[in-house]
């Protein structure tokens, strides 16, 4: 996977079938009904039971609507993915005005994968893979791929702008 | 029964008008091992309008001590902030400031 910056937004190219599958899981994880995911994405917020009940009745439905709308936006961008030249990989454009939604959705997906696979903080450390089960290792790889995408969108990596995506030849080198 | 009514009336008569200030509420952010540090900083800047340096300091407090009170004030506003933080999937809670 590589990342580039174009006038329209951020492009992620060289997306293998596994990467694409991981990305298609993002909106599903964001809307997951699994109790472990819901407990993390919609956590207990107030100490007092009555306050918590009020929070559940008023704030949580709004958050659920927001997550759902974010999932739809991510699905639309994923549906616009296109094959990258003859490489057999895919290219994803995240438009500039979708960056915040994607950042949050990627974070939600990482948190959900962590919760669903009984992962612990130690698994995210340098030697964490060694102590993880095969299923956990797969989840960790997905968590790391999504973290790399987040890091790009956060500007943690220096990426120069490569002009307009419309003028870019997909068989040529990645933009910037 | 009449005795109870008389007692209640007497109590009400003695009560002086009193204005109590609502207590302030804390917005607390808790550490989680998954969320990227730069993401937490960005969210603090975006939600509270904090300067980068202050946002970074609060993020480090969350990371090093496990939690940080990132804002204190009126309950209604605190609820708005917690909802915004949870919208970005930070582990945020509300707590009333004691005494």
Description of the structure:
The complex is a heterodimer of chains A (176) and B (99). With 176 residues, chain A is an alpha+beta fold. Chain A has one domain (2-167). Chain A contains five helices and four strands, in the order ββαααββαα. Chain A has a four-stranded antiparallel sheet with strand order 1-2-4-3. In chain A, a hairpin with a 2-residue loop joins strand 1 (2-6) and strand 2 (9-15). The longest helix of chain A is centred in the middle third of the chain and has 31 residues, at 49-79. The radius of gyration of chain A is 18 Å and the shape is globular. The model of chain A has no long low-confidence stretch (mean pLDDT 93). Chain B is of the alpha+beta class and 99 residues long. Chain B has a domain at 36-99: Ribosomal Protein L30, Chain: A, CATH 3.30.1390. A three-stranded antiparallel sheet of chain B has the order 2-1-3. In chain B, helix 2 (37-48) crosses helix 3. At the A-B interface, helix 3, helix 4 and helix 5 of A face helix 2, helix 4 and strand 3 of B.
Set down the secondary structure blueprint.
The complex is a heterodimer of chains A (176) and B (99).
Chain A lengths: L1 E5 L2 E7 L1 H14 L4 H7 L7 H31 L2 E3 L4 E7 L3 H18 L17 H20 L23
Antiparallel strand pairs in A: 1-2, 2-4, 3-4
Chain B lengths: L1 H13 L10 E6 L6 H12 L3 H14 L1 E7 L1 H13 L3 E6 L3
Helix pairs in contact in B: 2-3
């Amino acid at each position: 996977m590589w990342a580039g910056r174009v006038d329209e937004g951020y492009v992620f190219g060289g997306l293998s079938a596994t990467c694409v599958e991981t990305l298609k899981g993002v909106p599903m994880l964001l809307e997951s009904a699994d109790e472990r995911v819901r407990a993390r994405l919609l956590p207990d917020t107030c100490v007092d039971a009555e306050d918590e009940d009020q929070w559940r009745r008023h704030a949580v439905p709004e958050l659920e609507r927001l997550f759902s709308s974010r999932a739809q936006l991510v699905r639309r961008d994923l549906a616009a993915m296109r094959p990258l030249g003859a490489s057999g990989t895919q290219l994803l454009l995240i438009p500039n005005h979708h960056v915040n939604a994607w950042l949050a959705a990627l974070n939600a997906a990482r948190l959900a994968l962590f919760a669903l696979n009984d992962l612990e903080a130690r698994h995210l450390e340098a030697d964490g893979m060694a102590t993880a089960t095969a299923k956990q290792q797969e989840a960790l790889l997905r968590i790391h791929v999504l973290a790399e995408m987040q890091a790009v969108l956060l500007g943690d990596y220096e990426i120069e702008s490569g002009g307009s995506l419309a003028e870019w030849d997909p068989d040529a080198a990645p933009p910037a | 029964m009449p005795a109870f009514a008389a007692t209640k009336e007497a109590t009400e008569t003695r009560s002086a008008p009193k204005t109590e200030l609502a207590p302030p509420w804390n917005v607390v952010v808790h550490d989680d091992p998954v969320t990227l540090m730069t993401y937490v900083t960005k969210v603090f800047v975006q939600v509270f309008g904090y300067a980068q340096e202050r946002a970074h300091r609060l993020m480090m407090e969350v990371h090093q001590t496990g939690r940080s009170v990132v804002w204190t004030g009126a309950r209604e506003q605190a609820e708005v902030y917690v909802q915004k933080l949870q919208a970005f999937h930070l582990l945020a809670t509300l707590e009333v400031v004691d005494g």
